[in-house]
């Protein structure tokens, strides 16, 4: 058997051998995600004064940026200027807004990755954030958890406003980007329960962005009606339906 | 058109805003960066860390000195991002290095004696690594798992070269101490 000296001296080569055997999960291909972020930065830098952009980046820090990192990407196509080349890119509560042509939508039904329908109670156990339920709409008709607990969707099929959908995710309210929304013609800032929110009128192209920052093309769809986006400290939500602003704000205020 | 370009050329072009050239670097260094982030403690968040590191590296390309190797320069940013992450978790890097389960248990189950012993020893080594203080584990990860030289390790961890040397020595000693098998320990104590 190995003597004590041999046992000791073997450490360095053995560490190298262990290093070759260690389990490292596969790396994602990041070229698309990195490129997209650099393109966005180039756009926002052109839009914002250089100093502002620097302060913004500095104050946000990378951790905030990671938390904020797109959960959903809304591409506004409703306005004429929206059809021009992308001119605005903003993030708010985990949602990234772009003004520009929407992506080519694949035919057939659209879905978020890994959709699973379950009870509200089951969903609460599956996701890491507290699920907001708008009391004004009662219990949701369907509760769908997608992408291994990253998104939960409450679906109400029969409301006075028709189909209403509320997507929730671990977004983060980012006030620093918020002021920039004034550039967008059909986006307005609103107050929801004392926090800031965004009211977006008209249909938008909506696409889900996966954990690694790549768009899930199969999820691309045209939204119906108008959308309200807001967030609390722990959860961000987008409420979508054929709703007026007052009704949307009332529903949002009833969510807890 | 798709001629392979070397790092220096890709960096020079990326610095002028050429995102295609930068994509070449991203593709070329993703695996190394990901391995480094994972082993330094980013765990499941290694992809996020690497993405952030590439975005930051692009912004800081103007500070890159021509002729310098790109790998350690990038890994320094990766290591820094990983540190920010583990600090923000406010807990010890949730690393837990692991050997492939199938191989170790398979060998232990019915392999020849020397294979069983080697597997057992590697598992002890990994357990010992997981038990080291953060800095000592980091230096060993850089030197032995990422195959970086002492100078490169100093660059990546942003430490003086002397600290790399002294912490490596200390960490190896500690590992040796942790690795002495119980029966031999008894012999030396006699």
Summarize the structure.
The complex is a heterodimer of chains A (256) and B (190). Chain A has helices spanning 4-9, 11-21, 31-47, 50-68, 120-126, 175-178, 245-253; strands at residues 72-76, 88-92, 95-99, 116-118, 142-146, 151-156, 164-169, 187-192, 195-200, 204-209, 215-222, 226-231, 236-241.
Write structural notes for this entry.
Chain A has an eight-stranded antiparallel β-sheet with strand order 4-5-6-7-13-12-9-8, with helices on one face. Chain A starts with a helix and ends with a helix. The longest helix of chain A is centred in the first third of the chain and has 19 residues, at 50-68. Chain A has 256 residues and is an alpha+beta fold. Mean pLDDT of chain A is 69; it is low at 1-8, 47-89 and 173-185. In chain A, strand 5 (142-146) and strand 6 form a beta hairpin. In chain A, 29% of the residues lie in helices and 29% in strands. The longest helix of chain B is centred in the first third of the chain and has 24 residues, at 19-42. The chains are: A alpha+beta (256), B mainly alpha (190).
Sheet bearing the most strands of chain A, described? 8 strands, antiparallel
Shape of chain A: elongated
Give the largest interface: A-B, 37 and 53 residues
Counted beta strands of chain B: 0
The topology string of helices and strands of chain A comes to: HHHHEEEEHEEEHEEEEEEH
Radius of gyration of chain B: 20 Å
Low-confidence stretches of chain A: 1-8, 47-89, 173-185
Order of helices and strands of chain B: HHHHHHHHHH
Major sheet description of chain B:
none
Proportion of helical residues of chain A = 25-40%
Strand content of chain A: 25-35%
Output the strand order for the largest sheet of chain A: 4-5-6-7-13-12-9-8
The percentage of residues in β strands of chain B lies in under 5%
- Give the number of DSSP strands of chain A: 13
Q: Helical stretch count of chain B?
A: 10
Poorly predicted ranges of chain B (pLDDT <50, ≥5 residues)?
Answer: 102-109, 185-190
